[in-house]
């Protein structure tokens, strides 16, 4: 018997305010045409004044708990993936635990930027497999609008705010790829690439939150190579082929990265869940937001094989193969 981490419910939350490319073009020197052609992004959601990362996370977690038919008091681990916490400390996960969980349930943040959700899922999966949790919540939530330099057109057009969550439950499996649940996770990082994608502030350097800085072309090149490799790793580890995958739920950075990765893998583009057009890049929130979109519109069904992959600042990257 193998312990499997099964996704029981998914939920998401997007702030009400939508910022279109045309509206952005009134603030910085850009155009709807340029943004759509280079990124596939048409709009992004922006948190309201005073709306915090934990507020977005709590809304998404409540929906995921409702979808799973679970009470927050059942949850014995809260993991929040974010690079834009409410405060330098404590972890924003503690606010989520306080809002929906039982007093004493452990909570912490995981910081791996755009790979944060895959990292968080791996952490929760290992807690569950080790018998330290039976029911866990992993939520990716970001308010990137607060760390954008709104005068820098090379970055401010790319990102948005949002949150997505999953409720995970320990179940018995047979130890094969036919099991429901997380079949494997694969995590990587290479800190030599810090200068390619970073925030130019922080408590121990400038004592400020800072703004995103990025060498877009280099990030793009590394993303396609690393993501393709992480996907292959997941397929090999589970002895499945790309044709066995029902849905690719990738980190949503840029439509061109999604297309290039799918092409390199020989994957039918119709099997890729795409939300970057409506959400832009929401960092750690983008995979669970896309997963929720696919589940809620009925494309992703129970029993489907879902491959998740992400890459972000660090660099960090990774993949997870999950049977729903
Ligand atoms: N509007 C209009 N023109 C612009 C804009 C803009 N918003 N931004 C840049 N330009 C201009 C540049 O100044 C440049 O002009 P020049 O030729 O006169 O110098 C021209 O457009 C081309 O710029 P490039 O940077 O070469 O454009 P590119 O095709 O590489 O696209 C982009 C840029 C979209 C950032 C792309 O490199 C990319 O998506 N990279 C991946 C980065 C990413 O997604 N990071 C997110 C985090 S990591 C991850 O999630 C994988």
Protein described:
The strands form 4 sheets. Strands 1-7-6-4-5 form a 5-stranded mixed sheet, with helices on both faces. The chain contains 10 helices and 13 strands. The chain has 2 domains: 172 residues, Peroxisomal Thiolase, Chain A, domain 1 (3-Layer(aba) Sandwich); 143 residues, Thiolase/Chalcone synthase (Peroxisomal Thiolase, Chain A, domain 1, 3-Layer(aba) Sandwich), CATH 3.40.47. It is globular and about 60 Å long. The two termini are 19 Å apart. Helix 7 runs parallel beside helix 8. It is α/β, with parallel strands linked by helices and 324 residues long. A hairpin with a 3-residue loop joins strand 12 and strand 13. The site of acetyl coenzyme *A (ACO) has 24 residues, from helix 2, helix 6, helix 7 and strand 12.
Question: Distance between the terminal alpha carbons, to the nearest Å?
Answer: 19 Å
What is the spatial order of strands in the main beta sheet?
1-7-6-4-5
Shape: globular
Gyration radius from CA atoms, angstroms: 18 Å
Q: Look at the structure and give the CATH class of the largest domain.
A: Alpha Beta
Mean pLDDT: 97
Which CATH architecture of the largest domain is right?
A: 3-Layer(aba) Sandwich
β content, as a range? 25-35%
Q: What is the CATH topology of the largest domain?
A: Peroxisomal Thiolase, Chain A, domain 1
Uncertain spans, ≥5 residues at pLDDT below 50?
Answer: none
**How would a crystallographer describe the biggest sheet?**
5 strands, mixed
Q: Kindly state the percentage of residues in helix.
A: 25-40%
CATH superfamily of the largest domain: Thiolase/Chalcone synthase
Number of domains: 2
- The total of helices stands at 10
- Bound ligand species: acetyl coenzyme *A
How many β strands by DSSP? 13
SSE ordering: EEHHEHEHEHEHEEEEHEHHHEE
Structural class: alpha/beta
């Amino acid at each position: 018997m193998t312990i499997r981490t099964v996704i029981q419910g998914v939920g998401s939350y997007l702030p009400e305010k939508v910022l279109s490319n045309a509206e952005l073009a009134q603030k910085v020197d850009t155009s709807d045409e340029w943004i759509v052609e280079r990124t596939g992004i048409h709009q992004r959601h922006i948190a309201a004044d005073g709306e915090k990362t934990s507020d977005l996370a709590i809304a998404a977690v409540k929906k995921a708990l409702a979808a799973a038919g679970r009470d927050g008091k059942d949850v014995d681990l809260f993991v929040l993936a974010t690079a834009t916490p409410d405060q330098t400390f404590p972890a924003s996960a503690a606010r989520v635990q306080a809002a929906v969980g039982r007093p004493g349930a452990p909570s912490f943040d995981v910081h791996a930027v755009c790979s944060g959700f895959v990292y968080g899922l791996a952490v929760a999966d290992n807690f569950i497999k080790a018998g330290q949790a039976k029911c866990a919540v992993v939520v990716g939530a970001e308010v990137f609008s607060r760390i954008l330099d709104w005068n820098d057109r090379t970055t401010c057009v790319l990102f948005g705010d949002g949150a997505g969550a999953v409720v995970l439950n320990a179940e018995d499996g047979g130890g094969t790829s036919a099991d429901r649940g997380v079949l494997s996770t694969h995590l990587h990082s290479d800190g030599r690439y810090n200068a390619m994608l970073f925030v130019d502030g922080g408590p121990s350097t400038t004592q400020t939150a800072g703004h995103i800085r990025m060498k877009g072309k280099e990030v793009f090149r590394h993303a396609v190579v690393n993501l393709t490799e992480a996907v292959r790793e997941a397929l090999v580890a589970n002895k499945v082929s790309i044709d066995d995958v029902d849905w690719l739920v990738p980190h949503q950075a840029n439509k061109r990265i999604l297309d290039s990765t799918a092409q390199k893998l020989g994957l039918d583009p119709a099997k890729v869940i795409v939300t970057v057009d409506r959400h832009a890049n929401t960092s750690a929130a983008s995979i669970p937001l896309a997963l929720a979109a696919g589940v809620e519109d009925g494309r992703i069904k129970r029993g489907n094989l879902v491959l998740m992959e992400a890459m972000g600042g660090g660099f960090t990257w990774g993949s997870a193969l999950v049977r729903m």
